[in-house]
Amino acid sequence: MDIRRATTVAELLAAQHLYDGPAREEWAFRFLAAHGHLMLVAYVDGVPAGFVSGIEMLHPDKGTEMCLYELSVDAAYRRRGIGRALTEALAAVARERGCYDMWVGVERDNDAAMATYRSAGACEDGVFAMLTWKFGARP
Fold it and tell me: Mean of the pLDDT values across residues 123-132?
C-alpha cells in the first residue's frame, strides 16, 4: 500500500469510485485550489483503494484544527488496515501543519468507523448533536 496526497484533478477523478457519487471536474479543481483542503489516497497495486479527506479549520482564539471530513475504503480492500493507515496519515499531516487536534463526527452505530478511528488513536470527546440547514437539492 502506498498513501499519497492527491494534487491533480486526474487523481481525484480516478478515485471517484470511492466517493458517495460521481466527481465533478469543476469541484475537484476547486477542492485542490481551496486552502486547507486535502485528500490522501491509498493505492494497492496502483489502484485507488481508499481515501481520507481533511479540512483545516482556523479560529482566532483556538488556532488550527483538522476535521477528518470523510474516509472511505473500497469493499474489496476492507479489514486490511487501510482505513487506520489513512487516518494516521491525516493525523501526521495535521501535526506537521501545527494543528492542535483532529476531530471527526461519526454516527454511534457505525461500528466499523468507530473501531477504525479508535485503532488510530482517537478517543471519545462527549456526545453531540449534528444539526443541518438544507439549501436545496444536492446535485
Answer: 80
Cα-only R_g, the chain? 15
The number of residues in the chain equals 139
Collapsing DSSP to helix, strand or coil, 102 comes out as: strand
pTM of the model: 0.90
CA atoms within 13 A on the CB side of 124: 9
**Residues 26-42 pLDDT 10s:** 999 999 999 999 999 99
Q: Are the C-beta atoms of 109 and 85 separated by less than 8 Å?
A: no
- Report how far residue 73's alpha carbon sits from residue 116's, in angstroms, rounded to the nearest whole number: 11
Gap between the terminal Cα atoms of the chain: 33
Measured CA to CA, the distance from residue 27 to residue 114 in angstroms comes to 29
